[in-house]
Every structure is written in C-alpha cells, then in structure tokens.
Write a structure and sequence with these properties.
two-stranded parallel ribbon
C-alpha cells in the first residue's frame, strides 16, 4: 500500500484542515515518502489518481447518465483533488444540472462510494439532485460506502440502492480540534493569536469554554439540519438510527436508509430501468 504523500500529509497538519468539518478516513501506513506529483498544468483531466485507480467521470449509457460521487467530498479542489481521489461538489453539481437539459439523458444514476466530507457544498449537491428528480427519474447506488455527507447527498435520490456489504449511515456532524498547548509548553513554545474578537481564530491556541460552547452550538444546529433532511427524504428512518451509526446494506434496508439491494452498479441500473421503463 502506498504511503501518504508528504504534500498531502502537510495539508492535513495545517490549521485549515484541522478546523474544517471534514470526515477523513486514511488507511495504510503513515510513513512519509517521496511520491511523483503530476503536472497539473498539462491537463485538468487526469486519467488516474494517486493510488493508480481510473478517475470516474460522468457518462451516458443508453439514455442513463451515470454520475460518480467518489472519495471525500469538498469544494474548490481542482485537479489536485481528483489526484487524491476527492470529489469536488461544485463539479458534481454542474454534472447533475447538465443532465436536466441534455435530451440524450432519460434518467440519472448517482454512483456513490464516499465516506463523506465537508458540509460546504454538500447540502447544495443534495438539493441539485432533488431538483433534478422533478424533471427526470433519478436513482442512487452505494457501490461501497455511503456515509455522513455522502448519505446526505444520496438521500435526495427518490430510489436508493446498495450492496449487501455496503456501509451506510453515519448521520451527524463533528468538528475535530487539537489542543497543542501541552506539547508547546513541554518544548517552551507559546502560541500568540492577535484577534479582533474573542471568538475569532478558534483552535489556533487554547480553546476557551465560551469558544467550545459556540462550536458545539454550530455542530448541533448542523447535525439537526442533517437529520431533518434525512427525515424529509426518507420518512421511515428513525431518529435513534441517526446517532452516527453505520449499517450494512441489509440493515440499512430494514431501517429505511435504502430502498433495495443490488449486486453491483450494472444490476442497479437494470432495476432502475425496469422500475422507470427507461
């Protein structure tokens, strides 16, 4: 398994990466080693990501537009995001909206394999799918994991399927912060933040109780918005199942997170065609 790229490791250590509400799942060795960085100026259409996987792109097959939602979701990523297997939600929304006016598209399948991501842009992606479903049949298929923000987006699909082994759920939001003050004190380092307001620059130095309360209020509000959206789109889902749990495909089906089980994307598309007569 490839080690984490040193540039990527550096990005993860920046204050912005700490403060953003991102859900990152990093598997494999944490050893830092050199890696080839592609020439992004040569083309904005990379063929493979950092791990050598072919980058999935929107395509139309016999009237069905297949739009991938793969990897961690964020906004404004550009080619570098693709290289690390992310999905730029702005590009995703653009692809969804194009299908509305494309006469060759009679239905849309969202191919989802994502652990979630940053809420900014994600809510808009869900609304783009909801608006599309007013004009054309839309379905979603979980080809692996559909968790957190990815489920928020996927829940907008009127028909939502997954595999038996899919991982579905993780409803909720969280914010990860690190208090480095103890480590800094050990090495004789002191962080000084000059701020114009007592709630500005939270997380850059020691977090006060007032700052923590503000962050908790924000996370609670965002989490409630998430749960309310899922309840609106998936009326059979119980509140008790939206506390961050992750369910297998069959468990998700029993709890109302999914509408059906399919072996793979091809079978899901076939079922979609049967139901909609496309």
């Amino acid at each position: 398994m490839k080690p984490i790229d040193p540039l990527f490791a550096t990005l993860l250590r920046t204050p912005l990466a700490i403060l953003e509400r991102a859900e990152l799942t990093i598997a494999g060795s944490m050893q830092v080693a050199s890696a080839k960085i592609p020439d992004f100026s040569a083309s904005d259409k990379l063929e493979h990501d950092y791990y050598g996987n072919t980058i999935a792109r929107p395509r139309v097959e016999d009237g069905i537009a297949i739009i991938p939602l793969h990897g961690i979701c964020s906004i404004g990523l550009g080619p570098m995001g693709e290289y690390y297997g992310y999905t730029d939600t702005r590009d995703f929304i653009t692809a969804v909206k194009r299908t509305v006016v494309d006469p060759m598209v009679r239905g849309v399948m969202i191919d989802i394999h994502s652990p979630g991501g940053v809420t900014i842009g994600g809510m808009d992606a869900a609304e783009a799918i909801a608006e599309l479903s007013d004009s054309k049949p839309v379905a979603g298929f979980c080809s692996g994991i559909m968790a957190s923000l990815a489920y928020w987006i996927g829940s907008a699909c009127p028909l939502l399927m997954g595999m038996q082994s899919s991982m579905v759920g993780s409803i909720g939001t969280y914010l990860y912060l690190v208090d480095w003050s103890g480590l800094e004190a050990e090495f004789g380092i002191k962080s000084i933040v000059v701020r114009s307001g007592k709630l500005k620059g939270v997380g850059l130095d020691r977090i006060t109780e007032e700052q923590l309360a503000m962050l908790q209020e924000e996370i609670d509000a965002n989490g409630e918005e998430f749960r309310s959206y899922v309840e609106f789109r998936r009326s059979d889902v119980e509140r008790s199942d939206m506390e961050g749990q992750v369910f297998s495909g069959h468990q998700a089906l029993e709890r109302g997170f999914l509408d059906g089980i399919a072996m793979n994307l091809e079978d899901a598309i076939s079922e979609f065609r049967t139901i909609t007569n496309i």
